[in-house]
Amino acid sequence: MAYLGTPSATAEIIKQYQFVFQKKYGQNFLVDANILEKIIRLSEITKDDCVIEIGPGIGTMTQYLAESAGKVIAIEIDRHLIPILEETLKEYKNVTIMNEDVLKVDIKKIVEEKNNGNPIKVVANLPYYITTPIVMGLFESGVPLQDITIMVQKEVAERMQVGPGSKDYGALSLAVQYYARPEVLLQVPGTCFMPRPAVGSAVIRLKRYEKPPVTAQDEKKMFAVIRAAFGQRRKTLSNALAGGLTYADSKGNPVQVNRQQVCAVLEKMGIKPDIRGETLTLAQFAELSNLL
Ligand code: SAM
């Protein structure tokens, strides 16, 4: 099977199988061999690696992954793509194709079965409409993970990477940076896809920390604080938290904080109560939630 990463090879497969692109699945296939080679090189995969690819499409990147990695597990939701993948990947004995919704399937169990529970890598040109649930799901479900190299919408890559002071800084930046070190590797123009996406794209690597860079005594509470702080962006931090923060205590009972408690903690931290949440670092959010 020839490589699929060109407009003509992709168009031929589409025609041969009378495949109809599903917008609802975020189907924009890569048709640029140069970009594909770069992604594979930047993902630093070796024959020792087991790679999960989310959304293989017609198998374009899967071919490259199969040649570089030890094992590839390709999870695709669209059942119309399965016979195509079976054909385009038939020469690669190290690829497992799964017709599943990545948001519903138990990836931890797959890693247990296919890689004896050893850490895997994720490499994918993601369906953009579910970028955040996919990434957060991978981190929060405790899947043994080395790193994630993914194509995402350009602005989302930016949001994952920035720190306080940027207009793009928000709950996603903090959540990603709690689990991993982000690094934008590559900008990818729309001409590299079929059909062209309406938005810009970028490849970002999220290298998972062995231990989070800050200590949150209660992770769930810290994320509740972060969500409340960014939930009402125009409010000051003390107003946002006094009005919007609810979290579960150790017995699972909902707890609300009042303005007095918030102001007392902020004072202890040397933070003025009238600043906005977007000026706080991850370390400050961890400290704030530990003290509340
Ligand atoms: N990897 C291919 C490529 O680069 O040419 C296709 C990438 S395309 C941007 C995203 C792929 O994810 C599509 O094949 C789409 O059908 C698939 N997809 C969308 N939602 C999914 C889900 N919930 N679970 C698994 N795959 C999904």
The gist of it:
This protein is an alpha/beta fold and 292 residues long. The protein has twelve helices and eleven strands.
Core attributes:
single chain; 292 residues; alpha/beta; two-stranded antiparallel ribbon; 12 helices; binds S-adenosylmethionine
Would you spell out the secondary-structure blueprint of this structure?
Blueprint (H helix, E strand, L loop, with lengths): L6 H10 L12 E2 L2 H11 L6 E5 L5 H9 L2 E6 L5 H7 L6 E5 L7 H9 L4 E6 L5 H10 L4 E9 H8 L9 H9 E9 L4 E2 L6 E8 L10 H13 L5 H8 L1 E3 L5 E3 L2 H10 L13 H10 L1
Parallel strand pairs: 2-3, 2-5, 3-4, 5-6
Antiparallel strand pairs: 1-8, 6-9, 7-9, 10-11
Helix pairs in contact: 6-8, 9-10, 9-12, 10-11
The structure holds S-adenosylmethionine (SAM).
User: Major beta sheet, specifics?
Assistant: 7 strands, mixed
H/I helix tally: 12
Strand content: 15-25%
Mean pLDDT level: 95
Bound molecules: S-adenosylmethionine
Shape: elongated
Secondary-structure element series:
HEHEHEHEHEHEHHEEEHHEEHH
Distance between the termini: 60 Å
β-strand number? 11
Low-pLDDT regions = none
Radius of gyration: 21 Å
Helix percent reads 25-40%
Structural class: alpha/beta
Strand order of the largest sheet: 4-3-2-5-6-9-7
